[in-house]
Amino acid sequence: MLNAVLFIADPHLASLLQDMAGESREFSIESIAELARTDYAVARTLSKHSLDVALVEMTDLERDLPVAAAIQKNSPALPVVGLAGSGQQFHLNRGFTELASVAVWPFTVPDLERAISGAVHKLHGEIYENLVSFLPGKAGSGASTAVLQTARALTQELNKRVLVMDGDLHSGLMAAILNVTPRFSIREALAEAPAMDSMAWQRLVSPVGGIDFLLANPAIKEPVPHWTHYFQLLRFAAPRYDFVLVDLPEVVNPATAEVVRRSRAVHVLSTPEFTSLRLSKQRCQELENWGVERARIFGLLNREHRDDLSVKDAEQVLGFPIVRSFPNDYKAVQKAVKEARFIDPRSSLGEAYLGFSKTLCGVCEEKKSFMGLFRR
User: Fold this and answer.
1) Rounded mean pLDDT of 64-93?
2) Is 297 in contact with 284 (CB distance < 8 Å)?
3) Is 316 helix (H, G, I), strand (E, B) or coil?
4) In whole angstroms, what is the distance from residue 169 CA to residue 261 CA?
5) What is the mean pLDDT of residues 345-365?
6) Distance (Å, rounded) from C-alpha 40 to C-alpha 177?
7) Whether 176 and 242 share a structural domain
8) Distance CA 244, CA 105 (A)
9) Which domain CATH number covers 157?
10) Separation of alpha carbons 194 and 351, rounded Å
11) N or C: which end of the chain has fewer CB within 10 A?
């Protein structure tokens, strides 16, 4: 939930906004300040709280715009939402740099939430270059395995600091694959995201094999996260790791849309069958509908066998570039799951994940020697 400060002159509007904040699960009003404030008073109000957004009444532009300007001067990273009457809409449509977005009365709670979201993303909607998301075209395509093995290669072979987030809150497999029982789940991390600090973080993550995990616990159903929770969790976590890998279910929702929109790359896992590829194509198109640019959507072909569709033919069905194929090695995967360990990095499958991880790091792969072609 986002913390807001409200600068307002009208006490009735202030009361109404407090009621709206009480209905919303996306923002709360941390502090209320009078509009007729000096620059020093505005700075003092802002310094007292940890804030995500400022709401400023805009019914008298001569009086109110200087307050927005003072906020911008003292906290340039704090988005400002103007709360305007219909009489001010014409003037505000000309655009004022002091305001990141505007909500025009009469507005509803969803209207105000959209204005706040627009303001926050205008200033802080950048793509995280170290954030990479994965999702299956259909359940059972092996996305969780791909995330785990990529994380292993990045950590153990390429010496990167990696966080893995199990974003499938209802059916997450990571804990079962790793055979660990996390003390805390990713739901709890999301709930604590607004007030996250280093001590809480160390308590919430589960380290396994040199990788930090935020694991799902399907038995826990509450609280239901919103986009603000993912926004705040990523804002805290992303600067602390070289890579943040997120394992998502096949269907993106309004909360997890925050993850895919902010990802440098979103990889859709498919197997080399027409049904899987067609469903994966649908997933790619859904990602575009959620605002993910086409240039950031990629296919991964899992369980490839020489008797299956070629990568080129699979790519034509998918309609998106397939950046890596992983050979079918069912026995190696099942052995790793049974023993709760990672796939042998010396196997052809392990080498494929290492090659993919090098690509994520921008490292050119070395060509195999003649003898290396026979290694399994």
Assistant:
1) 84
2) yes
3) helix
4) 19
5) 83
6) 56
7) yes
8) 40
9) 3.40.50.300
10) 39
11) C
Instruction: Give the predicted TM-score (pTM) of the model.
Output: 0.88
Owning domain of residue 272: 128-374
Find, among 349, 292, 346, the residue nearest to 326 by Cα.
349
Token output for 302: 């899992």
Same domain, 163 and 97: no
Q: Name residue 55's beta-bridge partners.
A: 6, 81
Tokens read off for 342: 């990672």
pLDDT, residue 22, reads: 95
The first and second tokens of residue 143, run together, are 């996305």
Please report the sign of the dihedral spanned by the C-alpha atoms of residue 51, residue 56, residue 62, residue 63: negative
Residues 186 and 119 in one domain: no
How far apart, in whole angstroms, are the C-alpha atoms of residue 266 and residue 134? 6
Comparing 251 with 308, the larger pLDDT belongs to 251
- Encoded tokens for 14: 């202030």
- Evaluate the CA torsion angle 278, 282, 283, 285 in order and state its sign: positive
- Do 247 and 319 lie in a common domain? yes
DSSP string, 290-359: TT--GGGEEEEEEEE-TTS--HHHHHHHH-S-EEEEEE--HHHHHHHHHTTSPPPTTSHHHHHHHHHHHH
